[in-house]
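Dear support,

I submitted the protein below through the web form. The confirmation email said the job was done, but the results page showed an empty box. After a refresh the structure appeared. I'm attaching both so you can tell me whether what I see now is the final result or a partial one.
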Amino acid sequence: MSAGVFTVGTRGSQLAMTQTRWAADAVTRASGVAHEVVTVRTEGDVLTGPLSQLGGTGVFATALRSRVLDGDVDLAVHSLKDLPTSDVEGLVVAALPEREDPRDALCARDGLTLEELPEGAAVGTGSPRRVAQLRALRPDLRIVDIRGNVGTRLNRVAPADPGDLDAVVLAASGLIRLGLEGRITQYLDPHLMLPAPGQGALALEVRADLDPDTELARGLAAVDHLPTRLAVTAERTVLATLEAGCAAPVGTYARLVDGVLELEVVVADPDGSEVMRHAASLPGADLEGAAALGAHVAQELLGNGAGRLARLSL
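What the results page shows now:
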């Protein structure tokens, strides 16, 4: 920080900028310290092709993390689902603000739901996790691999131009943060489709040597949300134990219900022909218990053949 201002690194997309400003404003309110936003171009913003083939979850995070480590910015804001599960030496996720709606959302023409889409309808997504679960639910659908920002994806749904798709599936959290929830025709509840680990949560990452007595450190501690941290710890431990990345058809959903941490996981064959689900819960969970719960569920799945099913390289 310099002159009582902290700098925040972010990707340049509309969603990333919106999320970053929301998070930075929260830290400013809690700390009393003003902020400046610095736009960083990442590898994922430059490369083309399917996201699952662009180097994994770190494709959007590496450049931001380098800027924090180099001291060019004080804080980076990430979509947690884009962060690899392995720690980076010298960095720490200092805050996880309260999570937005973690569900996936269907945005379809004519207000249709997933059940109402006609046979052979074209549905766009760039997520192998969504592809596998969509195929399991509706094997008749034609799944189209898509990239681009939220607006670009929505514009492919008829009657827009080019309008070559009947629907797209996106994270509800991003649509809500952009004020586009009116485009959602169905929230896909976890019993239909489990979201990505950490979906809907933002990770505020700083250098590990940040002085805990600074206004910035105290502001970050104030916006950290323990129920969110517990839930995503369980979810991301599943992913880490399975040694799966963003290209793996793995979905998770954890939440605190009356003091009990509930976790559900799905592992699917990429073509959706077979789906394996497992659920477990833990009363009075702390962070260590949340991690243990995630590891336990992942080990149970591996013991039942999840690695073979999802074609994980274990």
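Response: this is the final, complete result; the empty box was a page-load delay. Residues 44-57 have pLDDT under 50 and may be disordered.
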